Amino acid sequence: MTAVVHATRGGATESADPDPSDGARQENLAQEVADYTSRFGPDRGYQRPGRTDRTAIAHGVGLLIDGHRAPAERILSQRDFTVRTILDRVSGHHYAEVADRTDEAVTPRGWGRVYIDLDHTPRFSIQIPHPVFDESTEQLGVRVLRDSPGGILVIAGAHRKAGVGNSADVAHHRNTVFYAICAELVRHGMPGLQLHGFAASTAPGYDAVASTGAGPAGRSDARRLAGALGTHGFHVCRAWVRTCPVEGSTNMEGRAANAADLPFLHVELAPDVRLNESAAERAATALSEITHRWAIAPAAN
Question: Which residues contact 238 (CB under 8 A, 6 or more apart)?
Fold first, then answer.
């Protein structure tokens, strides 16, 4: 498959003129994600997946990344997941969408969705563990995916408060489909960028908190990211320099990456950064400086 239009970063308002001849379904990826997450809420169901479900879904995603689509589709279908190719009409890029069939059901399982760049070799992940709860992080993830070749966007399938207790908080549990998929990407040697949002009162005076999560892997990339955010006008709390709030030291995906000595960047953003169109665009530009590096060169520690 060949895209005829290069990526244009941004939200759901821009349009391109991609070639429809390859049969891929044309969508606006930002709108597709917005429609998906619009159903999320603290009162909407989340079911804890069993071990066999988690293992099979992650394995299917791994096969898809490795180019083995037929067996991947078979394994994922057995777990009620679908795979389809979409052509994002804004960027002109092809993506494989891995989606839970129960998303449209009265009682969805809330096991998430994955978008894999099909036009470039997968190199890194963009992780959105708290869509809607951390408002607009899912749309920021779309921006970075569109702008960076070789990305895989992993979106949790439920509101953080949807499950019993805190079971739907996928950043702090290993027994989730989200964690299983991110761990599979770690096994593929991929660094990860995980996006969060904090309340303005949590870190007064800061626009962003940047850290490497549970360990030091990726410290050079974290410094570059903080510098890029600073260049774009954001005041950043650097967790390797001082104690910062919400620095992600208990994050489970970060622990998996650290155990494999792979970079993991945990980025918290203030409301004004996520919700203001101009600020979100500048933040995406800064984040993409790191993912572009990951796309063309080995990740730095």
Answer: 210, 211, 222, 223, 226, 244
Q: How far is CA 233 from the centre of its chain?
A: 24
Question: Kindly report the CA angle at 93 between 90 and 99, in degrees rounded to 5?
Answer: 95
Q: Of 116, 99, 119, 114, which is closest to residue 22 (Cα–Cα)? A: 119
- For the segment 248-270, the average pLDDT, to the nearest whole number, is 97
**Any bridge partners for residue 210, and if so which?**
238, 267
Instruction: Look at residue 266 in the predicted model and tell me its pLDDT.
Output: 98
Other Cβ atoms less than 10 A from the Cβ of 119: the count is 16
C-beta separation of 93 from 295 below 8 A = no
Assign residue 84 a region (left: φ > 0; alpha: ψ between -120 and 50; beta: otherwise). Answer: beta
Structure token digits, residue 103: 């998303």
Q: Provide the whole-model pTM.
A: 0.92
Torsion sign (Cα): 108, 112, 117, 122: negative
